[in-house]
Structure formats: C-alpha cells, structure tokens
Design a protein that fits this description.
Layout (H helix, E strand, L loop, with lengths): L3 H19 L9 H10 L11 H10 L10 H5 L2 H15 L3 H5 E2 L9 E2 L3
Antiparallel strand pairs: 1-2
Helix pairs in contact: 1-3
Length: 118
C-alpha cells in the first residue's frame, strides 16, 4: 500500500499548479462552509481555455478526489507533457543557453515565466 501522505502531497501540488495558472483557488466559493463542501464533494472550477489540454489533464489528475487513482510523483514525472519540458530544459542547458537555464517559459504557463536557480 502506498503512503497516503504522498498522495495528499500530490493533491496539494494540484492546488498549487491550479493557483499558479489561474491566481484562484480551485474550490473557492462564497463562504468557508461552501468551500469545504466544494473541496469534499465537487469538481474543481474549470481551468481557462488558454491552458493546454495536456496541462488541464495533469492538474485534474492531481486534483482527483480518489487518492487511489491520483498519480504519484513517479507517474507524473513520466507523463509526456512533463517529459517534453524536461527534455527541453536539458537540451537548452547542454547548448549553453544560460538564459534558458534561469528562465523557462513553459507552454502550459502562457505568458508566465518560471525561474529556476540551477
């Protein structure tokens, strides 16, 4: 049996990614009680249309209410979308693109920069 804490961490990662993409909480409602019900029983609010389908799928997988079907870190790191960006980062670093080593504009974060301190 997998460590339940790790699955909660993946759910928390889904919350963080959702907030980075939207600047909103995925289960935010009018008041505290409604927010708690939303977290427990409802699907997250839809992601904006300008977010790629692949990114939406990853975020929604991470926010899956069922921890048994939620991906673990290894599964997430091996998704094609994540692997694509890892390969891009590695190739830019190998090419000596020092700017790319510090700033990466990822396709699934339109108009936003991710700063990596390598």
């Amino acid at each position: 049996m997998q460590d339940p804490t790790a699955k909660v961490d993946m759910w928390a990662l889904g919350i963080i990614l959702y907030q980075l993409l939207t600047l909103k909480h995925p289960f935010d409602r009018n008041d505290y009680a409604q927010t708690i019900v939303s977290i427990k029983d409802l699907a997250p609010q839809p992601l904006p249309e300008d977010i790629s389908a692949e990114t939406k799928q990853i975020v929604m997988m991470l926010l899956d209410k069922n921890p048994l079907t939620r991906p673990d870190a290894d599964t997430l790191l091996h998704t094609e979308e994540v692997q694509k960006h890892i390969r891009l980062l590695i190739s830019k670093i190998r090419e000596g693109d020092t700017k790319m080593a510090y700033e990466i504009k990822m396709q699934f974060l339109p108009g936003k920069l991710i700063y990596l301190h390598l």
